[in-house]
Structure formats: C-alpha cells, structure tokens
Design goal:
Strand order of the largest sheet: 3-1-2-4-5
CATH class: Alpha Beta
Largest sheet: 5 strands, mixed
Bound molecules: nickel (II) ion
Number of helices: 3
Radius of gyration: 17 Å
CATH architecture: 2-Layer Sandwich
Helix content: 25-40%
Strand content: 25-35%
Order of helices and strands: EHEHEHEE
CATH topology: Tetrahydropterin Synthase, Chain A
Number of strands: 5
Number of domains: 1
Distance between the termini: 15 Å
Length: 143
C-alpha cells in the first residue's frame, strides 16, 4: 500500500512557567533554570502535524490540508496563541507546561477529529526554540 505521510505546519506564541509548587525556589531554579522565572516568559512555537494515509483515487490527497489547517486553527491555535499556557488553556489546565506535555495534550485534542475527517494522526513535532523540540507518536514507537 502506498502509505504516505503529510505534514502541516502552524505557529503560535505562548507564555509559560515551569514551576513545581512543592519545591523550594532554589530547587525550582536548579531543575528548570530560566524557565522557572516567576513572571513568565514566552516562546514562538512551531507545530508540525503529520497525518498518514493512502492517496485518494479522485483527489490524490491523504487528507485535504485545508481541512487539516482548519482543524488545527480551531482546536489548537485559537486556544493557545497569545495565551498563558499555564492558566488560559482549558485542555491544558493543571499540567506542568513542558513542551513534552503540550505535544501530548495537542495529540489528544485532535486525534479523533482528524480520524473523522479521514486522516490518521501519526506524529506531532513541537518546536519550542531553535535548539529544542519534541516528537510524539501517540505513545507508540516511531515508525
Ligand atoms: Ni520556556
């Protein structure tokens, strides 16, 4: 089968703070460094969402990227962009605002709706800085 992977990129910016309430200020600084800054800091995130499938006979598409973009705008970008990730995002409430946890939360938020639109979510890549990013495959081993 001609399984192929397509990727849509979106961007958003958000503020966060990595802070464990049960720890002292010194321990938070030791573990989280500058990301523990009390008055928040921000990142320009890049989100790469990869969907797999077989090209449709009529369209040649795995999934219409316009549809995928609309889903991402509504479910991910609107709720996250220009927000405080620790405080403002309903689907991320109460979680440590790491890039890892955010990638997992985004996967959980969009998996079903992508499936309803004929795609199978395969990978999320979330870039926090030019040097740091995470890949998530829904808890499975990468292909
Ligand atoms: Ni940070």
């Amino acid at each position: 089968m001609n399984t192929i992977y397509i990727t849509r990129r979106e961007t958003f910016n958000g503020a966060h703070k990595l802070w464990q309430e049960e720890w002292s200020e010194e321990k938070n600084w030791e573990v989280f460094g500058k990301c523990s800054n009390k008055n928040w800091h921000g990142h320009n995130f890049q989100l790469f969402v990869t969907v797999k499938g077989v090209p449709d006979e009529n369209t040649g598409f795995v999934m219409n990227l316009k549809t995928l973009s609309q889903i991402l705008k509504e479910k991910v970008i609107e709720p996250l962009d220009h927000k405080n990730l620790n405080l403002d995002v309903p689907f991320f409430k109460g979680k440590m605002a790491s890039t890892e946890n955010l990638a997992i939360a985004i996967w959980d938020e969009i998996y079903d709706i992508i499936a309803k639109n004929g795609g199978e979510l395969a990978k999320i890549k979330l870039v926090e800085t030019e040097n740091n990013y995470v890949n998530y495959y829904g808890g499975k081993e990468p292909f």
